[in-house]
Design a protein that fits this description.
phospholipid biosynthesis, isomerase, inositol biosynthesis, alpha/beta, 15 helices, Dihydrodipicolinate Reductase, domain 2, Rossmann fold, about 575 residues, Myo-inos-1-P_Synthase_GAPDH, 5-stranded antiparallel beta sheet, lipid metabolism, binds nicotinamide-adenine-dinucleotide
Length: about 575
């Protein structure tokens, strides 16, 4: 094992080190070091991880010890009964809770399904570039690697006001200890066997000079073999599928699905052991699959699902195999694509195994804007009557989506984004006026534009006294450069949330949160929720939930914008 060692303290700027392979993380108490595992050549890296709070709240509600933070918080809400005459009976209630945050940031391994895709390669490149503080030339001059577009790395949260009444903000990730994405150990699977230098070049996402600076490191990373069930992704992906462990003598076999679960479980265990990781998170950023039929007796309960995998039922998708394998390994599983991986049997399995899951479909460009704009219009009392969303893209995602069944998965996930907005306003949307917005979604594959997806949207709304308003938007969504920071945030927050436990004051023991991490909704188009609960799509509401959760954990109250200092005499 050849170690190419570089010792750097936590606060030393990370110098650009010529790496030859995948960075791997080894532990030693509160110190981490990168080491080398064949076939990868790597560097050693020492850093201290003791958490020193940068934001110190002077309150007796939150108590820090060396290892944990315990906070008291009284949750306040109201039960509302809508009466037959249209009035509302509102009964406020309170529930006191204790929250506990484990302050030790663990060594985190990330396994991507679809590692060799546009998102997969851009994710790995972004981590290597930031870890080494790479500088590269574009036609605009010299650029330094950054994490723009990531809420956890590049946004702030309001803490309060200064002595002059002006707002004061702190970095999102400074409130509580969160894993630094530079420290992720990354691995994963792909049905295509290209090394990541070749895959990065084919992806056509990154600036040429940056690719040149990364290619030596990227070429050492080769995805693990994956499973390919041709019925689930577009037929046009077939030529990519040269790295599949269910291909025997050139033939694809879709039987032996339970052995596929076991192989993936083994891959996860091997990755964790080889890198001495505390935690692994698996995230699907592979091709969009067709929807699986939800069939009673097949995938409707955890027990039926496991039985159906053992019987090689045809409605078991590769993504469901990955989800089941991860859950059985107690490894959180995040779905970044639109398909219904989380059939009821998977959700029940996650509940039974107390494992976190989150999905579906990254909310990166057009839909993110829609989840702001539709909410803004309806909250302003304007009545959108139609939204026409068109886009064209030329990457492999678009190629796969040019097939009708895979497009249908995307259409469903994109369409649901205005549902809760409509449901929030009975003045504008009711039985008499109609409870729907005409919502049309078109996706076209246009090879020439590559990863620079072009989204064009028209919002047509009714104004007062028969007037109309038309908003047209032309948005060039750099697909993978928008999606990669979301992947980082989903991983950072999943890891963070898995260190939070809670109890009601009357309970004896702390418990994990509910298995479906709906706090992740901010980053997802069709947020998975606890069965029986409606998804919240409005981006600002989602962000408010995140900010306030971090605030209450450090002993602050949820943020309001009452601004009495200014408004009251
Ligand atoms: N802005 C965005 O990029 C964005 C936004 C929302 C959702 N998504 C979704 O993210 C996914 C990935 O997007 P992308 O642009 O990276 O696509 P991509 O086609 O470039 O990459 C997908 C990768 O998955 C691999 N793959 C397919 N089936 C696999 C399997 N069973 N196991 C392992 N690997 C498999 C492919 O070989 C490919 O390398 C797509 O489903 C896309 O719809 C992307």
């Amino acid at each position: 094992m050849a170690n190419h060692s570089v010792r750097i303290s936590a606060n030393t700027p990370r110098c650009a080190v010529q790496l030859q392979g995948q960075l791997q993380l080894m532990s030693g108490g509160s110190r981490y070091k990168y080491a080398c595992f064949p076939p990868y050549a790597t560097i050693e890296f020492i850093m201290t991880v003791q958490f020193v709070p940068k934001v110190k709240v002077q309150t007796d509600k939150a108590k820090f010890s060396e290892s944990e933070l315990v906070t008291n918080y009284v949750y306040k809400n109201a039960i509302v009964d809508k009466q037959a005459d249209g009035s509302f009976a509102v009964k406020p209630f309170e529930e006191p809770y204790h929250f506990k945050v484990d302050l030790k940031v663990p060594k985190v391994g990330v396994m991507l399904v679809g590692l060799g895709g546009n998102n997969g390669t851009t994710f790995v490149a972004s981590i290597l570039a930031n870890r080494n503080q790479l500088q590269f030339h574009t036609k605009e001059g010299l650029k330094t690697a950054n994490y723009y577009g990531s809420v956890t790395q590049s946004s702030t949260i309001k803490l309060g006001i200064d002595s002059k009444g002006q707002d004061v903000y702190a970095p999102f990730n400074s409130l509580l200890p969160m894993v630094n994405p530079n420290d992720f150990v990354v691995g994963g699977w792909d049905i295509n066997g290209d090394n990541l230098a070749v895959a990065m070049q084919k992806a056509q996402v990154l600036e040429y000079d940056l690719q040149e600076k990364l290619k030596e490191q990227m070429k050492e990373i080769v995805p693990l073999k994956s499973i390919y069930y041709p019925d689930f992704i577009a037929a046009n992906q077939d030529e990519r599928a040269n790295n599949c462990f269910n291909r025997v003598n050139g033939e694809i076999h879709t039987t032996g699905k339970w052995s596929h679960v076991e192989q993936i479980r083994k891959d996860i265990r091997d990755f964790k052991a080889a890198n001495k990781l505390d935690k692994v998170i698996v995230l699907w950023t592979a091709n969009t699959e067709r929807y699986a039929d939800v069939v009673s007796g097949v995938n409707d309960t955890a027990e039926n699902l496991l039985e159906s995998i053992k019987k090689d039922h045809e409605e078991i998708a590769p993504s469901t195999v990955f989800a089941v394998a991860s859950i059985l390994e107690h490894v959180p599983y995040i779905n970044g694509s639109p398909q219904n991986t989380f059939v009821p049997g998977v959700i029940e399995l996650a509940e039974n195994n107390c494992t976190y899951i989150g999905g579906d479909d990254f909310k990166s460009g057009q839909t993110k804007l829609k989840s702001v704009l539709a909410q803004f219009l309806v909250d302003a009392g304007i009545r959108p009557v139609s939204i026409a969303s068109y886009n064209h893209l030329g990457n492999n995602d678009g190629y796969n989506l040019s097939s009708p069944r895979q497009f249908r998965s995307k259409e469903i996930s994109k369409a649901s984004v205005v549902d809760d907005v409509i449901a929030s306003n009975e003045i504008l949307y009711n039985d008499k006026l109609g409870r729907k917005i005409d919502h049309c979604i078109v996706i076209k594959y246009l090879n020439a534009v590559g990863d620079s997806k072009v989204a064009m949207d028209e919002y047509y709304s009714e104004l007062m006294l028969g007037g109309h308003n038309r908003i047209s938007i032309h948005n060039v969504c750099e697909d993978s450069l928008l999606a990669t920071p979301l992947i980082i945030d989903l991983l950072v927050m999943t890891e963070f949330l898995s260190r939070v436990t809670y109890k009601k004051v009357s309970d004896n023991k702390y418990a994990d949160m509910y298995s479906v991490l709906s706090f992740l909704s901010y980053w997802l188009k069709a947020p998975l929720t606890r069965p029986g609960y409606q998804a919240i799509n409005g981006l600002n509401k989602q962000r408010q939930g995140l900010d306030n959760f971090l605030r209450i954990l450090i002993g602050l109250e949820p943020l309001d914008e009452l601004r009495f200092e200014e408004r009251l005499v």
